[in-house]
Automatic annotation (TrEMBL):
GO terms for biological process: carboxylic acid metabolic process. Pfam families: FAA_hydrolase, Rv2993c-like_N. The lineage of its organism: Bacteria, Bacillati, Actinomycetota, Actinomycetes, Streptosporangiales. Residues 61-262 form the Fumarylacetoacetase-like C-terminal domain. This is 2-hydroxyhepta-2,4-diene-1,7-dioate isomerase. Keywords: Isomerase, Metal-binding.
Length: 265
């Protein structure tokens, strides 16, 4: 299933996204919250083009994994140093989260802002100290993420909170794909384009730490709540964007996420 969070008029809700035989896409409104109960439909259906897609979840926290693709570690070693044995973990605040087609604001404090396309894992239940072999039981689904980074601030600061945490620096969307197995999620192509030009072209099979290992590691020291998001790292090819450019991250089998970089008034 593909579960979207959307607005139509003054109402915000969740819905199932499907496609008819002619290729038209629709969203069927759901009752309540998909993470808090059994999925039920209201019978209301709208064309996808007639609604506004929002960030598919509003997480209490976004847990990010750094240095998880060897080629990316190599290209960033002058800024972030060498790779250790354990996953590198940092957080983005919930206020960084935006949805598809929402603006990403270029902060006045930075002179270089980079895209980082990533597979995002959406947690489906409260969990802590999850064994690797049970990681699949706590995954609700997957979405597309962009770990937008003020690269100059990342290099100058002793830690990454400011560089990663600006408002709008965590686009998520366009929906949550719940139908992927762990095996399938571990071999998905990830591409990032800027104004149509391919900048990143990787595959989740290149991750140093796989999804089950990431969940086990993160949950060993923090409780994960339903709707929390884990960004699993970015492949090589990161680079800067300028005001006015469009960033598009596409993950096969999941979806496509586009955001425009704008100057904050």
């Amino acid at each position: 299933m593909r579960i979207a969070r959307f607005s139509a008029g003054d109402e915000v809700g969740f819905g199932l996204v499907d496609t008819d035989d002619e290729g038209n896409r629709f969203v069927s409104r759901m009752k309540g919250h998909p993470l808090l109960g059994q999925i039920q439909l209201t019978g209301e259906r709208k064309k996808l083009e007639d609604v506004r897609l929002l960030s598919p979840v509003l997480p209490t926290k976004v847990v990010c994994i750094g240095k998880n693709y060897a080629d990316h570690v190599a290209e960033m070693s002058h800024i972030t140093g060498e790779k250790g044995a354990d996953p590198v973990v940092f957080l983005k605040p919930s206020t960084a989260v935006v949805g598809p087609n929402d603006p990403v604001f270029y902060p006045a404090l930075s002179s270089r802002v980079d895209y980082e396309g990533e597979l995002a894992v959406v947690i489906g239940r409260l969990c802590r100290e999850v064994p690797v072999e049970r990681a699949k039981d706590v995954i609700f689904g997957y979405t597309v993420g962009n770990d937008v980074t003020a690269r100059d601030l990342q290099q100058s600061d002793q830690q990454w909170t400011r560089a990663k945490g600006f408002d709008s620096f965590c686009p998520l969307g366009p929906w949550i794909e719940t139908g992927l197995s762990l095996e399938e999620a571990g071999k998905l192509r990830i591409t990032t384009t800027v104004d149509g030009e391919v900048r990143q072209d990787g595959n989740t099979a290149q991750m140093i730490h796989g999804i089950p290992e990431i969940i086990a590691y993160v949950s060993s020291f923090m409780t994960l709540l339903p709707g929390d998001v884990i960004l699993t790292g970015t492949p090589a090819g990161v680079g800067p964007v300028e005001v006015g450019q469009h960033m598009t991250v596409e993950i096969e089998g999941v979806g496509e996420l586009t955001n425009r970089v704008v100057a904050r008034d």
